[in-house]
Amino acid sequence: MTDWSICGTYLHPRPNEVASRPLVIAHRGGRYRGILENSREAIAIAVKSGVTHVEVDVRTTSNGIAVLSHDLPRSDVSLYSLTDALTDFPTTYFRIDLKDLRSCRTAPEIITRLHCQNRVCISSFWDYRIDGAAARLTPPVTRALGLRRGSFIALRALVGLKSALPGVAGLFIYHAHVRLTRRHVLARRIFRNLQRQGVYVHVWTVNDALDVAECLSLEVDGILTDKPQLVRAIVEGGAMSDW
Asked: pLDDT for 156-213, tens place per residue?
């Protein structure tokens, strides 16, 4: 079993290094020609290219199996299970986006059984799903802020106000849409104030080189993208002419 006390956590995968670059997170494993998203093949391509973090959508089937799927799974399609994903990629960090209520129970059960608490982030558009799943996990895990809670604290951050958050401080991620980064002055104020409160800032979904550059200038903590190899190349100092 991997010793995650040595390897780090979702937010700090390299515990002995000071974070100087944003995390690059492969959205649904990444988008590649001829490869299904949320599949083992997509995740494998991202991991092989050096990406440490992937985002996956999770739904639970009628027979109680948590599978990687953004939409309602069809009965004639064979889907990759969350258990297999966490097992097949034991040193990869997963952002698990809960797409239905049943997954608020099945996903934590799998995470607990596989001892993956420190390499996952629980997310959803809906705060009640995040809260429900997080309440089932010990020790506490990294969690995203849902749409309602995230919008509320961002508005407060804009005017310089702090917000009380449920759970353990330092384990929260605010997910900003890429469009916000194009309003540089506004975004900088919100992001800086959130980061001063110990809230990490990740931006989605970033697939344009100029948007990557804007994220870097705003010093965000993570970039969610369909093009993880190209974004990683820019983040690590590559030329944008490769796009």
From this structure: 999 999 999 988 778 999 999 999 999 999 999 999 999 999 999 999 999 999 999 9
Q: Is 140 exposed, middle or buried (0-12, 13-18, 19+ CB in 10 A)?
A: middle
Note the helical H segments in 142-203: 147-158, 178-181, 184-196
Specify whether the CB–CB gap between 72 and 60 falls below 8 A: no
Amino acid at 205: T
Query: Is the pLDDT reported for residue 238 higher than 90?
Result: no
What's the N-to-C CA distance of the chain in angstroms? 39
228-235 helix and 209-217 helix, angle to the nearest 10 degrees: 40
Q: Hey, which residues does 200 pair with through a beta bridge?
A: 173
Classify burial at 136, counting beta carbons within 10 Å of its beta carbon; exposed 0-12, middle 13-18, buried 19 or more. Answer: middle
